[in-house]
Specification:
Blueprint lengths: L2 E7 L4 E2 L5 E2 L10 E2 L5 E3 L5 E3 L5 E7 L6 E6 L4 E5 L7 E12 L4 E6 L4 E2 L5 E3 L8 E6 L5 E7 L9 E9 L9 E8 L7 E5 L4 E5 L1 H14 L3
Parallel strand pairs: 3-16
Antiparallel strand pairs: 1-17, 2-3, 4-13, 5-6, 7-8, 8-9, 10-11, 10-17, 11-12, 13-14, 14-15, 15-16, 18-19
């Protein structure tokens, strides 16, 4: 069973996949090099829109078998792959990303959830080593209201996690009421198909409920008796 996890937050985000994806506030100077892999088009308001891309901008591999960890992030800041243990993919079809809303959800400033995207301009990067972590991706909404900066740290092979820091900035000429930053993903955890999820205002997590799987198997066996 696949579960889509969604979190809304105005300041920070925690998205857990197996070991986890964590976020906190952090500020860094952004790079100014535009993406060489993204093409652009014009939206109805005349702004530039970066076309949805599955181009891998940073990747990480460590270990083998049960100790394997593989992470891939796109040039738009989507988690394309989180593989651990080896051959166990946790992100379904690269459907992971982010969205920005304001005015209590009345205005969608931009979203990029991996398979669908609108409202964001082309990314700018800061990446000390090409193709590697750490990776900073900065994007502005095409309405000229908000700037989102993502800082993907080098994955931790021991903890089997990757830390993502997100910083949201008002770049308009006035206040923007009730801004929500959301992060969502379609994840498979483990191999049982008994994925369960829960969350708070600033975190979500997911696990395999093996006791439920065993109970359902026992019930099926009992129901099949004559």
């Amino acid at each position: 069973m696949r579960r889509t996890m969604l979190l809304l937050s105005t300041m920070a985000l925690v998205l857990l996949v197996v070991g986890g994806v964590a976020a906190s506030q952090q500020r860094q100077e952004e790079g100014s090099t535009p993406s060489s892999h993204s093409s652009t088009a014009s939206d109805k308001s005349g702004g530039d829109v970066s076309i949805q891309s599955t181009t891998v901008k940073a990747s990480f591999v460590s270990g083998t078998g049960a100790n394997f960890l593989g992470v891939k992030v796109s040039n738009h800041g989507n988690l394309l792959s989180f593989e651990s243990p080896q051959d166990q993919e946790e992100v379904f079809d690269g459907r992971e990303g982010y969205a920005l809303c304001s005015n209590s959800g009345g205005a969608v400033n931009g979203h990029d959830t991996g398979s669908l995207e609108t409202g964001f301009g082309p990314p700018k990067f800061k990446q000390p080593n090409a193709g590697k972590f750490p990776l900073t991706i900065t994007r502005k909404t095409t309405d000229g209201q908000l700037q989102l900066k993502q800082v993907w740290s080098k994955p931790d092979a021991k903890e089997k996690d990757v830390t993502l820091t997100m910083t949201l900035k008002n770049i308009s000429s006035g206040p923007i009421p009730d801004v929500d930053l959301a992060r969502s993903g379609d994840f498979d955890v483990g191999t049982s198909g008994q994925d369960q999820g829960a969350g708070t205002n600033d975190s979500v997590w997911q696990w395999d409920d093996l006791s439920r799987a065993n109970s359902e198997m026992r019930f099926a066996a009992f129901s099949g008796r004559t």
